[in-house]
Amino acid sequence: MSPGGADDPLSLRVTVSDSWRVVPVTLPPGSPVAELKRRALEGAAISQRHASGYEVKFGGALVVDETQRLDAVGIPDGAGLVVLPRRRRPVR
């Protein structure tokens, strides 16, 4: 692999809102978003059995399909993401 190559791992900062803990995550760009969420929750000491109750946001937008690859979503090296609880809000 060459420096800065497309296959180099991404070093990401993931804030888990329940604890406001910033969890550093390093993953290959071809990894699914779900793996990023799993590692972030693990780093924040949140049980994986609650993972479905959390969502991932990048650039303020919800990542709807967590099976998508990080590079397909457009997540660059050094990016900051947020993992937060899914909450249903009433529509007014």
Q: What this model shows, in words?
A:
Helix content is about 15%, strand content about 30%. The chain has about 90 residues and is α+β, with helices and mostly antiparallel strands. It has a single domain, classed as Roll (Ubiquitin-like (UB roll)), CATH 3.10.20.90.
CATH architecture: Roll
Shape: globular
Radius of gyration: 13 Å
Order of helices and strands: EEHEEHE
Structural class: alpha+beta
CATH uppermost class: Alpha Beta
Strand content: 25-35%
**Number of E-type strands:** 5
CATH-derived topology: Ubiquitin-like (UB roll)
| Helix percentage range | 10-25%
Enumerate the spans where pLDDT stays under 50 for 5 or more consecutive residues.
none
What is the typical, i.e. mean, pLDDT? 90
State the end-to-end CA separation: 52 Å
Name the CATH superfamily assignment. Answer: Phosphatidylinositol 3-kinase Catalytic Subunit, Chain A, domain 1
Main sheet overview: 5 strands, mixed
Number of helices: 2
Tags for this entry?
5 strands, 92 residues, Ubiquitin-like (UB roll), 2 helices, five-stranded mixed β-sheet, alpha+beta, globular
